[in-house]
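Hi Y.,

Following your request, here is the sequence exactly as I used it, all 312 residues.
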Amino acid sequence: MDVIRNMLKGRKISAAIDFAADRTRLLVQQADRTGAAVSGRAIELPGADLAQGVRDSVVEALRQHVREQRLRDGRCRVTVAAACFRCEMATLPAMTDAELAVSARFEAMDRFNVEPSDAVIRHLPLGGAAGAPRSVLLLTLPMVTARHAAEAVMAAGLQMDSLEHAAIAGLRAATALDADMATGTVAWLHVEPRVASLLVQQDGELRFLRDIEGEWASTPRTQTRTRVAPREDDGSIPLAPVESDESWRWSSLAEEALRGLRAACGDASWPTRLIVAGGAADESLCQALVGVCGVQTGLAACADWMTGIDGI
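Below is the corresponding structure, written out as tokens. Let me know if you'd prefer a different format.
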């Protein structure tokens, strides 16, 4: 993330905007001249529908906080919800890196039926060396979505330095902050209300990504959970016991995660741990994943990534 220098305070300030599926976040981190973090802030705002454009009220709130943090004209990284992207893994024949870039672009255009004028098209290598068949992750993002994100960032007084898939950016950040994640096989599950992204990396390199669509929004414990009740006269069996715990509603996602891990890892390199992140994740999902996938699972310590977290 590019550094913005605040000459009055003699500190470095870095910023990021996360256009999540359910809310918009402005992240600001200040560091001293040595690079050590001294304070941080995370500001939550209403969500933004990037397909239609960010609401004026959200842009104005971002602009206000940019002024307060003295970030005007600074550069920031931008992450976008996984649901905005189309992703698919592909294996391409042996070729050079330059040839791979061209072939992957055409492969994505063909698979997703998009044109360069209508979509941002990218690929990520997933291991392998030049001269051997190459696995790649193909990604496309509608151009209108990218344009709306850039317009909102510029209207807020910032310059967009990069635009990334939220789940991939989260895994990269976690790996940078935790050296243990760069060793062996580690899985990362980023859960949004409509899409859960399962990623697997080996020795710090991304090797697998699969999006799992569903209704993954967390249901507050204060609300009545949806259950299927049997009719008293037909002898049917309820889908979920009335007193079942919260892990029941995560069973289908846990089963899909297990299928993804089997496809990515087989039996030889099962993950040493599975980290769960995203706005729709909670502790009950971790419990379900432990029971189904048989791997150490825990929530990402996102709150510890910055000091002095504030929210509104």
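The two ends are 24 Å apart (CA to CA).

Thanks again,
Q.
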